[in-house]
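Need the bound structure for nicotinate mononucleotide, inputs here:
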Amino acid sequence: MGTWCCRRRCSRSTRVRRSSPSSKRPAVKVALLGGSFNPPHVGHLMAATYVHATQGVDAVWLMPSFHHPFGKQLESFEQRVRMCDALCQETSGWLQTSQVEREVGGGGRTVDTLAFLVERHPDIQFSLIIGSDILRDLPHWKDFDRIQQMARVLVLYRAGYPAPNTVGPPLAEVSSTQVREQLARGMEPSELVPAGVLKVAREAGLFGLAIPRVRAE
Ligand SMILES: Nc1ncnc2c1ncn2[C@@H]1O[C@H](COP(=O)(O)OP(=O)(O)OP(=O)(O)O)[C@@H](O)[C@H]1O
Ligand SMILES: O=C(O)c1ccc[n+]([C@@H]2O[C@H](COP(=O)([O-])O)[C@@H](O)[C@H]2O)c1
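Answer from helper R.:
Posting the output first, comments after.
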């Protein structure tokens, strides 16, 4: 019986268990939450927590975009991965960061990422989480029909974006845009972003923040 997680060199102790072909274990269930994560915030954490708590999944993987399909200008992939890792530290280990979009390359289309993951992990059943704000963009997504064949799509009710057939109650009214705006005004968005995520952003001077000076002895 091996263990598996979304990153080859995962340091977390709570990895997703993989069932061997001979065992009768049910398939491992993983929900994917793709996004810019520029930066990750408590809305992402609440969305992932809600799905983990109610939708019968073993793990949730944050999938930061490597190339954003609509060309959004973002902080570097490496720094967004570091911030996602810091968000994952808020959980017992069921939330993990996947760097799969770097591996897949191309235009960052979700259908391509999902096809890659389905082929790589035939023993995992995937769900795809999207917030209800995304519904208006779906006509511009590549092959959304094929996505629905490969994964159960969970549309969460993002506060401010009511839509039919969403799952669950309205989630937090918070966005990365709001966080970036607060940082630009010199405010501390400590109620919107976990402290560990803010620490990464400050130390790396992301979002126009001044890098803290190290005082010489
Ligand atoms: N507060 C929230 N409630 C529910 N879903 C959310 C929330 N914030 C983000 N999401 C969902 O998480 C995914 C990734 O979102 P993303 O990283 O683009 O964050 P964002 O806050 O929308 O960013 P930005 O303000 O930069 O557009 C999307 O499916 C989005 O709908
Ligand atoms: O597949 C597509 O065509 C597609 C088009 C736009 C966005 N997406 C994905 O949707 C997720 C959320 O995007 P965003 O812009 O809200 O950060 C992220 O994983 C994107 O890669 C996917």
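Comments: The pocket of nicotinate mononucleotide (ligand 2) is lined by residues 34-36, 63, 65, 69-70, 108-111, 134, 137, 141-142 (CB under 6 Å). The chain is about 30% helix and 20% strand.
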